[in-house]
UniProtKB/TrEMBL annotation:
Pfam families: TehB (PF03848). Keywords: Methyltransferase, Transferase. The lineage of its organism: Bacteria, Pseudomonadati, Campylobacterota, Epsilonproteobacteria, Campylobacterales. GO terms for biological process: methylation. SUPFAM superfamilies: S-adenosyl-L-methionine-dependent methyltransferases. Residues 19-162 form the Tellurite resistance methyltransferase TehB-like domain. This is Methyltransferase type 12. One of its GO terms (molecular function) is methyltransferase activity. It comes from Sulfurimonas autotrophica (strain ATCC BAA-671 / DSM 16294 / JCM 11897 / OK10).
Length: 184
């Protein structure tokens, strides 16, 4: 864990990411009931800050203490420094879960369970690409074609797409995007 934390701290300092809210979050946030939100692997808080401004009480979770130090101190934001490889989500806890540019297959079933009834999931991360694309080298951090869609079978899918995109550093990449609601 310490090695991962140091690696992410260095990455956040040496290769800062953009600070504006992710477009998919901005587009679909209005579909969520304002209440409690979870921002998984929140980084420096670009989506966390946006959600707090929209009235959500946000659990901002990340491994990097440097990244969390950049998240605003706000009564609506609870910073949680944890290793997501061992962190577990509570059931029926969140009205909105945001997972952007992070993949933990271990957390996928927990994410479904952590949504409250009528809770909304906004999920976007990297997918396997061939050709001139910048993507994580470790295949554990890359979705396979349609994997994200299949992981959330049982939720009402509002939006799903796999597309070429530009990553946080302005490089060509490929992403899968999903917005889904938990119905009961």
């Amino acid at each position: 864990m310490q090695e991962d934390k140091e690696r992410w701290n260095i990455r956040h300092v040496e290769k800062p990411m953009r600070t504006n809210v992710e477009p998919i979050v901005e587009k679909y946030v209005e579909m969520a009931n304002v209440g409690k939100a979870l921002d998984i692997a929140c980084g420096v808080g670009r989506n966390t800050h946006f959600l707090a401004e929209k009235g959500f009480s946000v659990d901002a979770v990340d491994l990097s203490d440097y990244a969390l130090s950049q998240v605003k101190n706000d009564a609506k934001i609870k910073k949680i420094e944890v290793d997501l490889d061992s962190y577990n989500l509570q059931k029926n806890e969140y009205d909105l879960i945001v997972n952007i540019n992070y993949l933990s297959r271990r957390l996928l079933p927990q994410i479904k369970e952590a949504l409250k009834p009528n809770g909304l999931l906004i999920f976007e991360t990297f997918i396997v690409a061939h050709g001139d694309f910048n993507q994580p080298a470790n295949p554990e951090y890359l979705l396979r074609v349609n994997e994200l869609l299949h992981a959330f079978i049982g939720l009402d899918i509002v939006y799903y797409e796999e597309k070429d995109d530009i990553n946080l550093r302005g490089e060509n990449t490929r992403v899968a995007s999903l917005v889904a609601r938990k119905r009961c």
